[in-house]
Design goal:
Blueprint: E1 4-8, E2 11-15, E3 20-22, E4 27-28, E5 32-36, E6 42-48, E7 56-59, E8 62-63, H1 66-83, E9 89-95, H2 105-120, H3 127-137, E10 149-152, E11 162-164, E12 171-176, H4 186-196, H5 200-220, H6 223-242, H7 253-267, E13 272-275, E14 282-286, H8 291-298, E15 303-307, E16 314-316, H9 325-328
Parallel strand pairs: 7-9
Antiparallel strand pairs: 1-6, 1-16, 2-5, 3-4, 5-10, 6-9, 7-8, 10-11, 12-14, 12-15, 13-14
Bound molecules: ligand DP6.
Length: 338
Amino acid sequence: MRTTTARAYPNIALVKYWGKADEELILPAAGSLSLTLNHFETTTTVVPAPDAETDVLELDGALADPGQTDRISTFLDHVRALAGRDDRVLVRSRNSVPTGAGLASSASGFAALATAAAAAFDLDLAPRDLSRLARRGSGSACRSIPDGIAVWHAGDDAASFAETVPAPDMRMIIVTVNRARKAVSSREAMRLTAATSPFYSGWVTSTEDYLEQMVAACAAGDFTRIGEITESHALRMHGLIQSTVPPIRFLNPTSHAIFDAVAEARESGIEAYSTADAGPNVAVIVRPADAEALAEKLSGFGDVRVVGPGPGAHLLTADDAVPPADAVNPAAGEGSRA
Ligand code: DP6
């Protein structure tokens, strides 16, 4: 075993994943497609801790709470099973994304962890197998293994991985409305949707249909069709989520105002389309030449950042290792050593 560091970027789905066919294996009910970003990265260092009894997680310079540590420990069990080893590890992870606020931090987090942990345990995985591994941490994380625009295939465990597909160049404007951790996690909300929404089966079949159209639009370089599907599918997802019992709403009045402002921009000749994940923040796709002008128009709604297609998850050198929590904040690491 060895100490390793990896970096991964979040992805924002243009055809959304919302609902599982298998909770244990994290197999999606339908395929999805996303853009991996070139900002808001997660950097993760995995340090072998052969004498420790439990895994330890330091997140953003502080010891993580037991719930977060259990989740990564369960994920690391899959890595240990693949490697045929039982060693515990110390994980140091640093996000430049607010955790749990609907900016896909679990995607970059588990993609970085899968990449670093696979290397730490000397596993030499093919890209699709690394994507399948990341999927076990968080479904959307499998799409942060490849770069650019990626399709995550529905199917059985062997077939359900993400890979890059050809697509035209585009930019995404991230409008951060709220950085707070969301009240209901995607995982829980997804479960509730499948269990209670009368529209769920229609959602699954129409998502398959949209995905097929989206892949064709990407291959054809048809930005207009990509945008139309993106916005329509996002609103369908939020409609679906609002139809759960009890209802869940992730979009707030500012989110809706951004969708309206983007529709107005379209009327005035800047072609752009909105989407939003399980939170109030909005992501807008736009052609590269229009990105700065539209970002300026949206700057009154929150923090705006223009991002582009980013790289897949990758290993870094030892120089990029995440520093120990007690080096960042002397009080934070107390009690964290085995
Ligand atoms: C709204 O991948 O976070 O961002 O698989 O349960 O960990 P789990 O869920 P997660 O859900 C992401 C939901 C979404 C849509 C998407 O990214 O496709």
